[in-house]
Amino acid sequence: MQKTRLTALAAVSLAAALSLTACGGDDSGTDSSSKGSSSSNSNSSSSGSGSSEAGNKQSGSGEDIKGEAASGGAKSTFCKTEDLAIDAQDAAPDESTGRIDITMINRGSTTCSATGFAGVDIKDEDNTSSPIERGQAQPRVTTLKPGAAAVFNLAYDIDSSGESLASPTHILVTPPNETHTVTLDWPAGTGDIKGAYTDVQVYPTHTTK
Questions:
Q1: Nearest to 154 by CA among 177, 120, 104, 124
Q2: Element housing 51 (H / E)
Q3: pLDDT higher for 76 or 86?
Q4: Which pick of 12, 69, 77, 89 has the fewest CB atoms within 10 Å?
Q5: Which of 131, 113, 128 is nearest to 173 (CA)?
């Protein structure tokens, strides 16, 4: 009887030991799976960061060519104000339309680009300045070899009533993609501006040929 009881106890102890071993194996498997998942997420995050950095570098390389303009497959720098001889003349086609042609001649020793819109302000006799709006026109590639000229226009309606409130004295011109400004006299003999200075429009540069 005693031997039977001891045999039974041994069987119970063996079963308990096997049960504990099985439980320990399950816990180990869960931890391994969790670590693997965490490692996978970490790698995925690092990969995304790398893509973002690559995108930023690509955008940055695009910014580097802002100071250059394409011309016949080559690149030329934008014309500097100091290298341009700039002049303004009345070029009205009729008695109702006012037009001022502003010519820029490349006096530098290298080819440059004057493509785009010049910045223009009109200065009034009361010493105030008003910026001029851009006209509805697309810029054309305007590349200037040494000695070559480009022109752009100011256009407005002429006031024939004799009651114009505009009294322009000077034109302030900043060539395309430049920051240095030159001051020109308002051309003599031009028609009076109808409306306000905000009704005057500036058009993009183009070559004279």
A1: 120
A2: helix 2-63
A3: 86
A4: 12
A5: 131
